[in-house]
């Protein structure tokens, strides 16, 4: 599992970043009011597997939940992740369905 301490919220570039060895994964976002729109998941080929992506998204969601923000997934992969992991539906804003 990914350690939350390794996750960096680069608010200048508006992305969550995770560096493992020489590989760099990121989730781009847009922040509006109390909602965070997760727009793009970018994972290098060396880390491109479902287990890594799941751990990465869970770590990002924990960070978002700690900040008391709502999640609007515009990335198809992240939307699919929420559909498969119903416990994260509580992070969706009122009226948004996945």
How is this structure best described in words?
With 98 residues, this protein is an alpha+beta fold. The protein has helices at 50-66, 76-84, and strands spanning 8-10, 15-20, 23-32, 35-42, 70-73. A five-stranded mixed beta sheet has the order 1-2-3-4-5. The radius of gyration is 13 Å and the shape is globular. The mean pLDDT is 92.
Descriptors for this entry?
alpha+beta; 5-stranded mixed beta sheet
* Strand segment tally: 5
Largest sheet report: 5 strands, mixed
Relative strand content:
25-35%
Q: What structural class do the secondary elements suggest?
A: alpha+beta
Task: Calculate the mean pLDDT score and round it.
Answer: 92
**Percent helix range:** 25-40%
Set down the secondary structure blueprint.
Layout: E1 8-10, E2 15-20, E3 23-32, E4 35-42, H1 50-66, E5 70-73, H2 76-84
Parallel strand pairs: 4-5
Antiparallel strand pairs: 1-2, 2-3, 3-4
């Amino acid at each position: 599992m990914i350690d939350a301490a390794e996750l960096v919220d680069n608010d200048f570039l508006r992305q969550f970043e995770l560096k493992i060895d020489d590989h760099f994964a990121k989730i781009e976002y847009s922040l509006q009011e109390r909602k965070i729109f997760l727009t793009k998941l970018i994972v290098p080929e060396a880390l491109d597997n479902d287990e890594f992506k799941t751990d990465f998204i869970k770590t990002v969601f924990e960070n978002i939940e700690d900040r008391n923000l709502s999640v609007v997934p515009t990335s198809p992969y992240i939307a699919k992740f929420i559909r498969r992991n119903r416990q994260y539906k509580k992070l969706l804003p009122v009226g948004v369905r996945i």
